[in-house]
Amino acid sequence: MALRNEIGKEGEAIARAYLEKRGYHIRHTNWHYHHFELDIVAVQANELVVVEVKTRSADFWLEPEMAVNRKKIQRLVTAADAYVRLFNLDAPVRFDIITLVKDAEGYHIREHIEDAFYAPGY
Q1: Domain containing residue 31
Q2: Can you list the pairs that 4-10 forms with residues at least 24 positions away whose Cβ atoms lie under 8 Å?
């Protein structure tokens, strides 16, 4: 597995543990359906929380959250819609971003951005 993929998988595992410690119920990690993917799908206070995890090495040039551009947001919203329809859920959906940085000492969560963006058109 490429180093980039390993860093991403480790970051997702750390983000999952972070959310669980804060009382989130994790429904799925790395959920795939056709060409859709969601990093983490959780529930908190009767709200479905879709979490995009961005992990970078310490020598990154661009802030991790900046990788969540308009195209990525559209794909996440479409994937979340497919998820809600597939599981026949009736709950509000929130989109969060968790950013992590890996340095010589390990992985560190930089930020948990709740309500990072809203679905276009809402």
Answers
A1: 3-117
A2: 7/55, 7/56, 7/57, 7/102, 8/53, 8/55, 10/55, 10/102, 10/107
pLDDT tens string 12-70: 999 999 999 999 999 999 999 998 999 999 999 999 999 999 988 766 665 666 677 88
Round to whole Å and give the CA distance between 11 and 45: 24
Q: Residues with Cβ < 8 Å from 7, sequence gap 6 or more?
A: 55, 56, 57, 102
Tokens representing residue 52 in the block: 């995009």
Residue 36 sits in a domain whose CATH number is 3.40.1350.10
Q: Classify the C-alpha dihedral 74-76-81-82 as positive or negative.
A: positive
Q: Residue 67 corresponds to which tokens in the numbers above?
A: 């990788």
Q: Which two tokens stand for residue 33?
A: 């359906």
Q: Report the chain's C-alpha Rg in angstroms.
A: 14
Residue 92, in any domain of the structure:
yes
Residue 28 lies in a domain: yes
